[in-house]
């Protein structure tokens, strides 16, 4: 087993390989992380690991509040994550490559990163200015009949998009061609579908591409049926990416 140590950025969302992640970094622990990443030469990858938070706060409290209005908020890299951060996070995440790190006048950063590969967390170091983790890269196995499943998922996804656009009474823009590589399809659909974080995390952790596609096919058919029967069902706008508050 080969592991590497990477800076760790916990979020209330799941990052998938190949997907773009914009970040608005303002907390000091993550500012310190970005300053450290900027020490890496531009021609090299500036990598950090993103994990979804299982139990904790993406943004640490910054002022006294309930239940004790006089208690000072916790400070440091583990703020909001409890005594054992490893228990607060899902243990499978995604490596992000920060192609753009732009420092603002206020000391914060605007970051544009892209997911590269899945990793499993083995340990977390809390001794520095920001969290770091020992991670192991997880291979992406194709599984059985991934190609056929990908074709079925793409058909179901197009139907899902049309139903969702109709429920929201808006036109659907699909100018870009959808990919045909099974693993790329599986991650694109996992990221674009309106699903809760535990479901997206389950898709990220799938043992192989075929298993992920099989799960997505069931999810898309179920979601499409719900939208068909409840056309006023609110849904997240698929055409916009979210930016972390951090």
Automatic annotation (TrEMBL):
InterPro entries: Lon_prtase_N, Lon_prtase_N_sf, PUA-like_sf. Gene3D superfamilies: 1.20.58.1480, LON domain-like. Residues 61-83 are annotated as: Disordered. Residues 6-224 form the Lon N-terminal domain. SUPFAM superfamilies: PUA domain-like. Pfam families: LON_substr_bdg. It comes from the Bacteria. This is LON peptidase substrate-binding domain-containing protein.
């Amino acid at each position: 087993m080969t592991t590497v140590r990477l800076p760790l950025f916990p979020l209330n969302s799941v990052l998938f390989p190949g997907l773009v992640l914009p970040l608005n970094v303002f907390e000091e622990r993550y500012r310190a992380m970005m300053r450290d990443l900027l020490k890496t030469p531009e021609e090299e990858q500036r990598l950090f690991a993103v994990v979804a938070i299982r139990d904790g706060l993406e943004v640490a409290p910054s002022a006294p509040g309930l239940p004790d209005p006089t208690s000072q908020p916790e400070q440091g890299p583990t703020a909001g994550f409890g005594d054992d951060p490893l228990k607060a996070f899902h243990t499978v995440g995604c490596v992000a490559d920060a192609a753009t790190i732009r420092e603002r006048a206020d000391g914060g950063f605007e970051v544009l990163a892209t997911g590269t590969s899945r990793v499993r967390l083995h340990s977390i170091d809390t001794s520095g200015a920001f969290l770091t983790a020992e991670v192991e890269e997880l291979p992406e196995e194709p599984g059985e009949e991934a190609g056929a499943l990908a074709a079925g998922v793409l058909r179901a996804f197009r139907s899902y998009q049309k139903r969702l656009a109709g429920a929201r009474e808006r036109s659907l823009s699909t100018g870009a061609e959808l990919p045909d590589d099974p693993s790329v399809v599986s991650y694109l659909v996992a990221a674009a579908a309106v699903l809760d974080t535990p479901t997206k995390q389950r898709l990220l952790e799938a043992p192989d591409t075929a298993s992920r596609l099989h799960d997505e096919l069931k999810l898309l058919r179920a979601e499409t049926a719900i939208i068909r029967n409840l056309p006023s069902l609110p849904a997240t706008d698929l055409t916009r990416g979210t930016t972390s508050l951090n």
